[in-house]
Specification:
By secondary structure, this protein is mainly beta. It is about 5% helix and about 65% strand.
Length: about 220
Amino acid sequence: MKNFWIILSISFMFLVGQANADVRFGVSAAYTQIEADGTETEGGEKNSASASHDVIIPSLFIELEGDKFALGLDYIPIDADVSDKTKSRTDTEKSVTGNKATTSTTREQKANAELSDHLTLYATYKLTDTFYVKGGMAQVSLDTTESLGTGSKYGNVDIDGVLYGFGFTDGNSRLELAYTDYDDINLTSTVARTGVTTNNKISADLDTLSLKYSYAF
């Protein structure tokens, strides 16, 4: 997805070269369901969890429109939490490697993540005067916002996705349903827990389903 701007520029130049291509700007608001499933591997232990968040997300778009085909770029100017609340748990450790004495150490684990700088390069094709299908490529930054008693820290990562959808339009107004499936996420912590030789790892899957209303000027 690093080639977003190259692909977009070439495609725009192609459409601009056609006499029936128009440049349009617009705004959107999408009721979006964010779903994520993940597993953290800490030493030999695995902890799995799911997260979800229903949120209304605004966006801005620009596109070139022909008779039936249109190419556009959609940008979301706000951040969105993956979960509707911070996930937390308390772990109790009863022993320490190399120490025969029984211990009781508790660690508070809190984690969440947010999505930012979301871009979608998309194309639509009208099957009728009012009904169209849509496909596209998305890229978003996933920013982890954890506070872990183990001292582990996870960085941020850019993830790519593929969008599929369909919608209805009367020319200016549009209503569409779209699903975006993002690539699997794999993160390794920068700090290992005391007594554990390997750093913690997180693997996760993220997808969204949105019902979007748009208006093109």
